Structure prediction request, 82 residues.
Amino acid sequence: MEYIALFATTLEAVKYRRKLEKLNIAAEAIPVPRELSSSCGIAIVFSLSQNPAPIVDQSVRKLYRKEEAHYILVLQNEESHN
Prediction:
């Protein structure tokens, strides 16, 4: 499954991409899709065949699963930075 993670800051997005790469999960920084707004203009997209919950940390503001042309919200972190 393809996931898109949103962040409050660009720095958090960059750090999260590095974290995923250290876990051998291919990740790419992309502009936040227009359907998904965020205070940060960068999102991290990655694919994972298992539940993403174990790799999601506090920096992830929202996590969406992409299904065809739709985005499904799977996690919203209330404790992330505004």
